[in-house]
Amino acid sequence: MKNKIIIFAILLFSANAFAQKNGLEINGWTNVNTFKCSHPRFKNSGSVYSFTGNQLPNISVSVDDFDCRNKMMTNDFRKVLQSDHYPNLNIRFLEFKKSNSNKFEAVVEVKMMTVARKYSIEFSLYNNSLVGNKRLRFSDFKIVPPKKMGGMVYVKDELDLVFSLETKD
């Protein structure tokens, strides 16, 4: 029950933050603090997505365009995802269906570096945008979460992929 409340709060916050716009964030935790890495270029892309027929979205974004609002954190994020060798993060919709009036279910493939994983994600319709959130793990993509200061500060394995996609009516 607690997890559902947290997910609902994240979706509600994300829906308000991304209202009628595209948005892509990766949120995570360290043993000391939290971090949020957003993708301003995707947010300002002006893209509008269609979820009808068999032409589902295939989104590719540059890892170097993520901004964690802290230069050192941004550089560490890009280094962990090896942006010099794997410049893009890819999100491909494989299935999409309506489950009730404002809820949708999708199967999405997320590819980081050389690893692609499929996830079921629930989306909510809010102001002509589909808002979704999925808890992932660095280890899902064979990434060891980074440590600093001899392991005194470490990034937890879990992270949230939060996104909003402006849709056509």
UniProtKB/TrEMBL annotation:
The keyword Signal applies. It comes from the Bacteria. SUPFAM superfamilies: YceI-like. Residues 1-19 form the signal peptide. Keywords: Signal. This is YceI-like domain-containing protein.
